[in-house]
Amino acid sequence: MDSINRQQPEENHKDLAHVAAGKKIKELASKTNTCFFITGIQTGKPLEVRPMAVQKLDESGNFWFLSANDSHKNAEIQKDNQVQLLFQGSAHSDFLSIYGTATISTDKALIKELWEPILKTWFTEGVDDPRITAIKVETNEGYYWDNKHGDAIALLKMAAGAVMGKTLDDSIEGELTV
């Protein structure tokens, strides 16, 4: 694969599949519990983007959120259930883009499993608030940008590369197929 920067002496692209992809998704998404949850991606209009807290994430790349049944997001999912999740774990690494299929559930056992007391801010009647729904996003495909050896090593390599006039980038990126 051709790199944008052909001076890169190290491998900087690695696609991951199945279990390895699921582990990478969980690793990167767990660095922050929030993402940008995007709906209306196939409308040709400006995207509907909002921050959302991930309530649960599994090794297969499935995400769960809690949402109000009368929210714009739920209405948008009912029209088009293809969504995108964007994560940024730090200023220089841990970037993750997930494209998936969203489903809405009113399963009370699932809602109780995902519940946290802080959510009473939005669901004033607590865990039994009749407006609560659970949204599951099943990953269809994803892409990641990370570094191989941690932020400190990446910064040292970038600084050394700048001094030497070489590209010494510790980055790694690739497609994720679960």
Provide structural commentary:
By secondary structure, this protein is α+β, with helices and mostly antiparallel strands. Helices cover 23% and strands 36% of the residues. The chain is built from four helices and nine strands, in the order E-H-E-E-E-E-H-E-E-H-E-H-E. Strands 1, 2, 3, 4, 5, 6, 7, 8 and 9 form a nine-stranded mixed beta sheet that branches. The longest helix has 14 residues, at 151-164. It is globular and about 55 Å long. The two termini are 22 Å apart. The model is unreliable at 151-164 (pLDDT under 50).
In short:
With 178 residues, this protein is α+β, with helices and mostly antiparallel strands.
Roughly how much helix do the residues carry, as a percent range? 10-25%
Give the CA-based shape: globular
Element order: H for helix, E for strand: EHEEEEHEEHEHE
Count of alpha/pi helices? 4
Structural class comes to alpha+beta
Point out poorly predicted stretches: 151-164
**Quick one: biggest sheet?**
9 strands, mixed
Question: How far apart, in Å, are the first and last alpha carbons?
Answer: 22 Å
Give the strand tally: 9
Evaluate the radius of gyration: 19 Å
* Portion in beta strands: 35-45%
Report the mean per-residue pLDDT as an integer.
85
List the helices and strands and how they pair.
Elements: E1 16-17, H1 18-29, E2 34-39, E3 48-53, E4 56-57, E5 62-68, H2 72-79, E6 82-88, E7 95-105, H3 108-114, E8 132-147, H4 151-164, E9 171-177
Parallel strand pairs: 1-9
Antiparallel strand pairs: 2-3, 2-6, 4-5, 5-8, 6-7, 7-8, 8-9
